[in-house]
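User: Show me a protein chain along with its predicted structure.
Assistant: Here is one chain, sequence first, then structure tokens.
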Amino acid sequence: MGPKDRLHATDTERIDQAMFESFPASDSPAWTLGSPGEGVEEIPDFRLPASTGQTLAKSAFIGKMPIVLIFVSDLSTDESVATLTAFNDALAQFGHRVSQVLGVARMTARLAREAAERHSINFPILADASGEFARSCAVADDPHAASVVLVVDSNGVLHSRISEVTDSVAIEVLASIDALETV
């Protein structure tokens, strides 16, 4: 596909091309779809490219530590950047609780890496260019929707879902992780 053809490519073709440019075909994204709706009890398996250049999978964290998944649109909005920045500012506190913070954005790995560098985000941002992982986690498919934060225990079970993201969201999530440790 030449540069002129890209001007007329469909959204699916542009995503496919961007995904191809972002990481090797042997490292293509993978996920197992979960149940739609609010009833998701366990996050689905995932294997997605990250802003760090790695491909990260659910299996790397299960049995070891809780995961905080921060779903944002595509880091083109002030709200998305502010949400990730709030977690970035509290990152040391998450490390003390032995947990992994992961952003999830509807963009390619290359664009996620550029955004992470531009906004000085120091945790991986998973590239979910098609939005399939977000949908499988029952997170709205609207690219302009508010951020959603999921706290997942070390067994992969959804512990908390925060849909009303405020300035104090990182503190709420830290409290949720503390509650996991006392159970």
